[in-house]
Specification:
Helix content is 79%, strand content 0%. The chain has 235 residues and is mainly alpha-helical. 21% of the residues are buried.
Length: 235
């Protein structure tokens, strides 16, 4: 019961986070990003369910194609006859080489057909995981200019300096929301390989998790700076 991720619970968590951001930072860009995260979470549930289900029609078509190929080869072999004079060494080598080529080509064709479903699902999964990776960078852009030192130490701003509109407490909440969104992104990525055992997709998910963890660590370094400064104010 508690060994698998529940997509519905992830979606509800994103919805709650979206409300929290709206209540504290109404009309902010971060609220829009979280709304996009909610849309992606719904799509991730649908896509991961589709990937986990067997494509029965495709499997039937593949099985039919392989049957026709094997049956055709059997008909050709059955219709062939050995020469009355037998084989000499050169003829035997030529026949063996031709037969080996046919077997190799047939095996390659069968392998291609058998792995069709895997390749289709892998392509869908990698495309979806790429969207999650891009969204992680968007979230990181929203916290990029949130410098804790500027919130703690009032310095003279230039014309190109980012606007400083958050108090230390608000900055902590803003950064924490970014960290939560990154964590939820990692969970959405894990949905795609929860019931889809593919090493390529798994590697892509691991890359997303490493990315979100790395970005989250940067955010928590900023939060630690704010918490340390506010708990030990300068005398």
């Amino acid at each position: 019961m508690y060994r698998n991720l529940d997509a519905e619970k992830i979606i509800r968590t994103v919805e709650t986070l979206n409300k929290r951001i709206e209540e504290r930072f109404p009309g902010s860009g971060l609220k829009s990003v979280c709304g996009e995260l909610h849309n992606v979470a719904i799509k991730s549930q649908q896509r991961s369910n589709w990937i986990a289900k067997p494509l029965k029609s495709l499997r039937l078509l593949v099985a039919l194609s392989i049957t026709i190929m094997i049956a055709g080869l059997a008909v050709i072999v059955r219709g062939s006859s050995l020469p009355r004079t037998g084989f000499d060494l050169i003829g035997l080598v030529q026949v063996s080489e031709a037969g080996l080529n046919v077997v190799i080509l047939l095996g390659a064709a069968i392998l291609f057909l058998v792995t069709t479903e895997l390749r289709i699902k892998r392509g869908r999964a990698l495309q979806a995981i790429h969207e999650l990776r891009a969204l992680a960078h968007v979230i990181d852009m929203h916290q990029l200019t949130k410098d804790p030192e500027r919130a703690l130490v009032r310095t003279k701003s230039t014309a190109s300096s980012p606007k400083l509109e958050l108090s230390p407490g608000e900055l902590t909440r803003y950064l924490d929301y970014c960290s939560e969104m990154l964590s939820l992104l990692g969970k959405l990525a894990a949905l795609y390989v929860q019931r889809f055992d593919d090493p390529v997709a798994l590697a892509a998910v691991n890359d997303v998790e490493q990315l979100t963890n790395g970005l989250s660590r940067k955010i928590w370094q900023k939060i630690s700076i704010v918490n340390t400064a506010t708990s030990h104010p300068q005398m």
